[in-house]
Amino acid sequence: MIASLSLILVCQLIGEVIVRGFALPMPGPVVGLMLLLLLLLARDRFAQLARGPLQGGGVETASRGLLANLSLLFIPAGVGVVQKLDLLAEHGIAIIAVLAVSVVVTLLATVATFVVASRFMARGKDLS
Amino acid sequence: MNENPFSLWVYLEQSPLLWLTVTMVVYASVDAVSQATSRHPLANPVAHSMWIIGAFLLVTRTSYTTYFAGAQFVHFLLGPATVALAVPLYENRKLVVAAILPMLAALAVGSITAVVSVVVLAEAAGLPRGVVLALAPKSVTAGVAMGISEQLGADPSLTAVSVMLTGIMGAIIVTPLMIRAGVTDFRASGFAAGLAAHGIGTARAFQVDAVAGVFSGIAMSLNALVTSLLVPLAVTLLVR
């Protein structure tokens, strides 16, 4: 458990160092994600890497635990927003209506494109 | 017992323990309700925890700074949770690699729709220019959206509010919308949730299905990259 969380933190730390060091325009944890992914892929190829948190599903269990409670992690930032709701005062209803319609339109456009494109690909495979 | 309950309150109010505990207890209760209702969309744990804690702070006249001193321990875990996305991504890598083309197509259409729809609608509703600019990056994760908003000279706090509202509305509406539209492909609905409603959409997607969560996380990350390029362009073309 502790070893698995440490591995995740180490990946994030190296990610932050790389991002700051090379002034990359992306968040450190995203680079950390790629590092952990590379480690997991490398483990399948090189058996000697499969030790500590990288064996017996250690880091997998810790990660699933974090992601199962992803909602909790947004609450501190979300509470900050509750306190700033007065920013909406003058145009509140118009802003909420605009955002609501936009999110529905975006969800539908995205999902429709995905479904159509994957059907198109499946048909292409059948033909060839 | 302390003779003066007020001095006890003053002590507790200033320590991280109280506000960390409040955050965890409120979330645990709201999440139990969410589970008891089989993850009903309206029982969204982020939305309900937000207003309950917000109201609690208001009643006790606690500043956000004081609250955050405790809640920051939870907030901090957002970074490790992002790294942890590597695990479901690794476990579903074959599924992800096989879906690269549909993902790229959906990313292109979705990110353009997210920005153009909000700018056009906000203009049509007669909102002032400053508000239109602040709303434009609302579909990406708060940190990135606030950076974009700052670049445009808009108010980053208003952007943060619109990001959070978008995330919550998206997370609540995605399941009923997909059922009504007859979408059964968790890859597609997850991707849409992450693209339109960033991390809060991804948290919802993980509640529903692991594959939906993976595709949602990918969509969220890709959209953050694309939107930071797209918004300045859309604003030049569309805003009066």
Summary of the model, kept short:
Chain A is mainly alpha-helical.
Give a topology summary:
The complex is a heterodimer of chains A (128) and B (240).
Chain A: H1 2-21, H2 28-45, H3 58-68, H4 70-73, H5 75-82, H6 92-127
Helix pairs in contact in A: 1-2, 1-3
Chain B: H1 5-14, H2 16-36, H3 45-59, H4 64-76, H5 78-84, H6 86-91, H7 93-98, H8 100-124, H9 129-135, H10 142-151, H11 156-180, H12 186-208, H13 210-238
Number of helices of chain A: 6
- The domain count of chain B comes to 2
Give the averaged pLDDT of chain A, no decimals.
87
Q: What integer is the average pLDDT of chain B? A: 89
Element pattern of chain A in H and E: HHHHHH
Quickly give the structural class of chain B.
Answer: mainly alpha
Helix proportion of residues of chain B, in percent?
Answer: over 70%
The major pleated sheet of chain A works out as:
none
Structure summary, number of beta strands of chain A: 0
Describe the protein's architecture and organization:
- The complex is a heterodimer of chains A (128) and B (240).
- With 128 residues, chain A is an all-alpha fold.
- Chain A has helices at 2-21, 28-45, 58-68, 70-73, 75-82, 92-127.
- In chain A, 76% of the residues lie in helices and 0% in strands.
- Chain A is extended.
- Chain B folds into two domains: 5-76, no CATH class; 83-238, no CATH class.
- Chain B has 240 residues and is mostly helical.
- Chain B has helices spanning 5-14, 16-36, 45-59, 64-76, 78-84, 86-91, 93-98, 100-124, 129-135, 142-151, 156-180, 186-208, 210-238.
- Chain B starts with a helix and ends with a helix.
- The radius of gyration of chain B is 20 Å and the shape is globular.
- Chain B is 82% helix and 0% strand.
- The mean pLDDT of chain B is 89.
- Chain B is built from 13 helices and no strands.
- The chains are: A mainly alpha (128), B mainly alpha (240).
- Chains A and B meet through helix 1, helix 2, helix 3, helix 4 and helix 5 of A and helix 2, helix 3, helix 4, helix 5 and helix 6 of B.
